[in-house]
Amino acid sequence: MPIETNPFSKNFLEVLQHSKTYKVNNATNNLELFTCQINANKFNYSQMVESLLEAVAYFSISRKKLSEYQSSPMKLSQRAREKFKNYKKNKGELGEFLLFCFLEGHLGAPKVLSKLELKTATNMYVNGSDGIHFLRLPNGDYQLIFGESKVYADLTDGLRDAFHSVRDFINETSGSGEKSGINYEKHLISSNIFNKTWSPEEEAFIEGLIYPSTDNSFNVDDAFGIFIGFEINITDEQKKLSNSEFRVAINKQINDIVTKKIKNIEKYISENELFGYTFHVYTMPFTDIDKTREIILENLIK
């Protein structure tokens, strides 16, 4: 099936440091820890933003619209930033965008739809996943991956709330009382969005992922991609270290934080009865997280 990841998400990975892969639940799930590169004892956010600019269009514009704009790259860029600018009023948007880039660029899971497309096509539907991707497994089977992202000061809070959201999504419960959940979202995609987004051949393939049948030559399992941005505090003493010492100290600090959370993740999976689902978890530290989030978003749309 010729649905591929966008060519720019890997640019993002080239300017990040992949610190470590953690195994969760006896290697059933992975947690990937990434960090910005460090320059002069500071995270180099400007380099990260530069690497993300081209991917904005692939996140915010449908595949069909992308093909229509092929001969007008400036118009495509303008249209993508307009959509992203309106969308950034929601504080979750940076996490959703970074999750999209990790799932496409690192995991190799092409986007079916972003949350921005879902909101646009379904009158601001806000209770569902933070994007939908698919992943072809080595044995020829597939995962349909639903996204969940949190950008919180505290990593524990972010992980806990993310797994609670996944539980509610699976159980189709919403505090607002509105329709939501995994089956409702599959219905939305199938009934409202296909004709605007996919070719007939692509539509048939995606339909087979959403509603697998015995006619398929492959099996499909629901899975989840999770991104958690969290805050780290850098002390005045750390700032005074040499560049090489600073890198070692920060890498140890963030790995110490994440290592302590692996048991938490296993507890959340158990408490919420989420065995059987595969989780692709991505984490990334930020300094002064609320201010940094705003700066990154402003630079992505200016």
From TrEMBL:
Residues 12-298 form the Anti-bacteriophage protein A/HamA C-terminal domain. It comes from the Bacteria. This is Anti-bacteriophage protein A/HamA C-terminal domain-containing protein. It comes from Enterococcus hirae.
